[in-house]
Amino acid sequence: VLASLVTMALVFLVGYQFFGYWIGILSMAFYGLSPILVLGSRLSVPENMIALGVMGSLLLAKKYLDKPSLIFPIATGLIAAILGLMKPTGFFLAPLAMFLVFSKKKWGHAGLILALTLIGVGLYFAYGYHYNWDLFLRIVSVQGRRFAGWTGLAYIFNSPAYDIDQLFDGWYIFGFIAAIFFSLHENKSKEMKLLLLFFFYWLMVAVLSGTEQDLLPWYRYPLFPMIGIFGALGLSWLHKRADFFALVFGIGLLMTSRYYL
Q1: Nearest 5°: CA angle at 176, between 178 and 217?
Q2: Count of CB atoms within 10 A of residue 4's CB?
Q3: What pLDDT digit, counting tens, does each position of 38-54 carry?
Q4: What's the predicted TM-score (pTM) here?
Q5: What does the H/E/C string look like for 116-148?
Q6: Using alpha carbons only, what angle is made at residue 202 by residues 57 and 70, rounded to the nearest 5 degrees?
């Protein structure tokens, strides 16, 4: 719960620094009112800490792209190492951070991120060796052989859930549709491009790390704060449009949650 409160504050900060104060407020409201996003953020799973780390890294990335400094590679390298010790999925933060520093041609910064992440990987294997090496290798082998494939992408869109049971939350679907909608815009701001990069990168991580056609929605949790932001941007766009389409689309999706009242 405490981590979700910090994540909610970061959702506001990202919305505010990227798109303005009211988008920040609306993003926080969307994240704090959508049933799936709320219930998912309350579960005690490592992915909620990964979501926290991703949002923090997103803020740091914006500052780094504006003015490169050592803070970003040190922070993201440490975050990736710590998150990876909670769950190996957390190590996937490092390639994304390295891509950003490569875009600024800061090869030494990329090496620093890699070194810090490898320290985390080494500690992960050291823990397995200390605890029970044979059991550790067996678990890694079983987890590594789970089949993941591209039908998982469609499955994420058509199976709204926060645990092993589906929850038909239109807010969740609205946020995904908004992300796809804004990704198709030709003229994107640099802030929108950065948010889309983080969103679709973690969407691919969710597809490849979760099993195909198996409802393990906690792998999607790092996407949830960004779904809140895209949902806020979608609501803002519908408000500006203010026509019959906006009315049908908004009510048709956002009123679905009244089913659970």
Answers
A1: 165
A2: 21
A3: 888 888 889 999 999 99
A4: 0.91
A5: HHHHHHHHHHHHHHHHHHHHHHHHHHHHHCCCC
A6: 25
Cα distance between residue 197 and residue 185, in whole Å:
14
CA distance 225 to 49: 12
Q: Which of 54, 57, 22 is nearest to 233 (CA)?
A: 22
The dihedrals phi and psi of 161, each to the nearest 5 degrees, come to: -165, 160
Alpha helices (runs of H) in 43-106, residue ranges in sequence order: 46-66, 71-86, 93-103
Residue 10: which residues within 8 A CB-CB, separation 6 or more?
Answer: 52, 55, 56, 58, 59, 225
Interval 121-154: pLDDT, tens: 999 999 998 988 899 888 888 777 776 666 778 8
Which token pair is 152?
């998982």
221 exposed, middle or buried (CB, 10 Å; 0-12, 13-18, 19+)? buried
Q: Which amino acid is at 161?
A: A
Coil, helix or strand for 187?
coil
Q: Please compute Rg for the chain using Cα positions.
A: 19
33 CB-side CA count, 13 A? 17
